[in-house]
Amino acid sequence: MAGLPGASRARSASPGSPPALDGSFLVSPLGWLMCAQAVLGLLVWSLIAATTYHLHAAYGWVMFVSLFFWILTLLFFVTYLLQLHQKFYMIPWPLVLMIYNAVATVLYITAFVTCAAAVQPTSWRQWDYNRRAAASFFACVTMITYGVSTFFSFRAWKGLGSNAATSQVTDHV
């Protein structure tokens, strides 16, 4: 679990203790990337929501992907910030996070391509064009941040040559 916050130190959260803030998570690459994903995802769905997206089916997909992963990213962020992942030690969190980031990357690729292809420069509402073009740009940047998170999550999942099952067992022995 190298690369994840709290991986190098002993587990401090017992099942009955209240959640505690993990300050090291906020300065870790995972913390920075999750913050960036939350801000960028918010920009994507708010820019699309500010247009007449309901008239175009393509923007419904972009709205779904951006809002769905924005909510899940916030949930993962709170989970890691409050060290709740240590209370549910039976879940292989590095593997879950890697799969989540990989799926988010693939679906954001489809959302970015869909959004960029649906932008029409001859739109009768200029502000819709500007917002949709900006949403396409931010969807691309968000896709890149999820891709980078996938890379770091993969490295954390691989750890120091151990697999997820053995790292879960050895952490609590």
From TrEMBL:
<feature type="domain" description="MARVEL">
    <location>
        <begin position="25"/>
        <end position="158"/>
    </location>
</feature>
<dbReference type="InterPro" id="IPR008253">
    <property type="entry name" value="Marvel"/>
</dbReference>
<keyword id="KW-1003">Cell membrane</keyword>
<keyword id="KW-1133">Transmembrane helix</keyword>
<comment type="subunit">
    <text>Forms oligomers.</text>
</comment>
<dbReference type="Pfam" id="PF01284">
    <property type="entry name" value="MARVEL"/>
</dbReference>
<dbReference type="GO" id="GO:0042552">
    <property type="term" value="P:myelination"/>
</dbReference>
<keyword id="KW-0472">Membrane</keyword>
<keyword id="KW-0812">Transmembrane</keyword>
<feature type="transmembrane region" description="Helical">
    <location>
        <begin position="94"/>
        <end position="119"/>
    </location>
</feature>
<dbReference type="InterPro" id="IPR013295">
    <property type="entry name" value="MAL"/>
</dbReference>
<dbReference type="GO" id="GO:0043209">
    <property type="term" value="C:myelin sheath"/>
</dbReference>
<comment type="similarity">
    <text>Belongs to the MAL family.</text>
</comment>
<feature type="transmembrane region" description="Helical">
    <location>
        <begin position="59"/>
        <end position="82"/>
    </location>
</feature>
<dbReference type="InterPro" id="IPR050578">
    <property type="entry name" value="MARVEL-CKLF_proteins"/>
</dbReference>
<feature type="transmembrane region" description="Helical">
    <location>
        <begin position="134"/>
        <end position="154"/>
    </location>
</feature>
<dbReference type="GO" id="GO:0016324">
    <property type="term" value="C:apical plasma membrane"/>
</dbReference>
<protein>
    <recommendedName>
        <fullName>Plasmolipin</fullName>
    </recommendedName>
</protein>
<dbReference type="GO" id="GO:0019911">
    <property type="term" value="F:structural constituent of myelin sheath"/>
</dbReference>
<feature type="transmembrane region" description="Helical">
    <location>
        <begin position="30"/>
        <end position="53"/>
    </location>
</feature>
